[in-house]
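input
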Amino acid sequence: MRNDLFSKLGFAATLLTLCVVVLGAFVRLSDAGLGCPDWPGCYGHLDVPKESHEISAANEAYPERPVEAHKAWKEMVHRYFAGTLGLLIFAIAILALKQRREPQQQVKTPLFIVALVIFQALLGMWTVTLLLKPVVVMSHLMGGMATLSLLWWISLRHSGLLSARTIATPRMKTLALIGLIIVVLQIMLGGWTSANYAALACPDFPTCQTYWWPPTDFGEAFTLWRGLGVNYEFGVLDNDARVTIHLIHRIGAVITFLYLWWMGIVMLRQSQDVIIRRISIAMMTIVTLQFLLGIGNVVLSLPLAVAVAHNGVAAILLLSLVSLNHALRSKREGEIHG
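output
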């Protein structure tokens, strides 16, 4: 395993991205997504207005969104972390360009991550300016997850960490790829559930509003675009649409849990490679924790700590699938491509 500057920066950026993802979940779940009604500052400041004359001016400029300092600070801390991450990603890309003549240096993927993080900044702006439009909020979440996954991938590929020492079968590679796709889709469903304030649409478990299959409205539930000028804070959907979103997310959770456990057992049976086995066990443990946190969100009425943990563990579960796919596709000497 190589331990050079590129690898160190990559792992640091991955950790910081995980923090940004969790902070974003905390901001969203504590209803602070519009804590600052403008972007990139907050009421025209680089921090939150503190002095009485600053607060008065801010309230006059944004009468529909008076200053709530506790919400504004949550949003600004998230922006500070995201801005720092952006600078770190730019540094990684610059280093990749400087080392581009080295045979194992990745260049295309770091440059793509730069483009992705710029688009993420735009999504962050649109999240505020478009008043928490669900498709933008979900896209912002998935952009963060994509950034996290790609940073982890290039760090693993460059360092040689978690590289398997045996050749994986095509079936194992296919199963791992399908598992990754399922987890990505389930995270998208989770983001859509949160963005539409549908997490408590089914307050009971395992039934939903006492039904095994409650009244649903798929057309309204999965309408992506509803025009401009609508304030989506606290949601705009009726009961049946929110129930539909929640119900589909539950079904997706069951499918994800069962598939990853089955796949993990297949990996343990078919591979004697210690790396593959350890990642598989970790993945099965993480998806079990995630499933229990999802149940806890319902039966405990969405406590903030549990809801944020549910988002954080989803990100870690995604990293475990990225790790498994990397290990199954890595070569013994850790050759780098991309």
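quick obs: The chain has two domains: 1-161, 163-338.
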